[in-house]
User: Which sequence fits this backbone?
């Protein structure tokens, strides 16, 4: 799927003279009108990015959440969204669609193009001379069935099928938590395969997703909530930063052996990470003790 920076929406030059915008202007004050226009434009470009006849969604078969719409518009507070949606629906600029989603009204007015040389996100056309509709972009050509990326060649076909299924479920969870849309690529499967080789669990991956969606939400780092960042070289760092799950007992209530077992598994078998976390929690541990726990757990 092209990124928004590659998407260009061609808009009729008299768009803001249409009855819908006239009604919107009548129902709002000047400052509010500008806010609503900016909100609608963000939805317009999201629909163009999705390339689904004006439909707005995160997952095609699930309702569109207010939280997702807030994130598309860089809103820090979700409660700003419902009144804006209501006004746009009243003016018939957007409309409710199936499955709790929304659709841009009169999508036939707009033309979407992928044109990196153009340099601007939008341009206008004369309604008397509408441009030729752009063909829908073709999906990337998949690798032939008998060709496997080098990083995955050591796996059997059955193992690769399981990896692909796990990758799909993890990306679905990331989309649900972040409100963003991602494509399941071989590159993501390679990153996840590397984590699984380190005995990282799906539960730990979801903890990192939850933590970074919370930690980076609404800030400058929100753009880095994506597979290549979360599942990359800093994964273990993010995992150690994440607050412990509610069921984990404080270190003081555990035996030292159980504490080390839990910490070793949390650190995905990284001895240095175990030593650093133990030091942070004022627990005296030797490298030999940690290595013995790893041997006991089969790392």
Assistant:
């Amino acid at each position: 799927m092209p990124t928004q920076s590659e998407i260009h929406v061609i808009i009729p030059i008299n768009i803001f003279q249409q009855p819908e915008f006239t009604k919107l202007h009548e129902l709002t004050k000047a400052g509010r009108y500008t806010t609503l226009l900016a909100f609608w434009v963000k939805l317009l470009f999201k629909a163009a990015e999705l390339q689904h006849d004006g439909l707005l969604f995160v997952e095609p078969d699930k309702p569109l959440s207010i939280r997702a719409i807030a994130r598309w518009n860089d809103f820090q507070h979700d409660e700003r969204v419902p009144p804006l949606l209501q006004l746009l629906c009243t003016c018939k600029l957007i409309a409710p669609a199936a499955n709790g989603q929304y659709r841009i009204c009169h999508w036939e007015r707009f033309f979407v193009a992928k044109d990196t040389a153009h340099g601007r996100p939008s341009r206008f056309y004369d309604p008397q001379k509408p441009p030729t509709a752009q063909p829908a972009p073709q999906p990337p050509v998949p690798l032939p069935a008998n060709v496997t990326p080098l990083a995955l060649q050591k796996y059997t076909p059955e193992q690769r099928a399981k990896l692909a299924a796990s990758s799909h479920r993890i990306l679905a969870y990331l989309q649900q938590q972040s409100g963003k849309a991602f494509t399941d690529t071989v590159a993501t499967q390679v990153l996840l395969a590397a984590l699984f080789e380190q005995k990282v669990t799906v539960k730990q991956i979801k903890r990192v997703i939850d933590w970074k969606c919370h930690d980076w939400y609404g800030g400058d780092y929100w753009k880095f909530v994506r597979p290549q960042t979360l599942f990359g070289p800093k994964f273990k760092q993010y995992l150690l930063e994440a607050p412990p799950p509610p069921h984990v007992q404080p270190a003081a209530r555990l035996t030292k052996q159980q504490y080390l077992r839990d910490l070793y598994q949390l650190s995905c078998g990284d001895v240095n990470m175990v030593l650093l976390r133990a030091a942070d929690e004022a627990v005296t541990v030797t490298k030999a003790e940690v290595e013995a726990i790893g041997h006991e757990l089969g790392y």
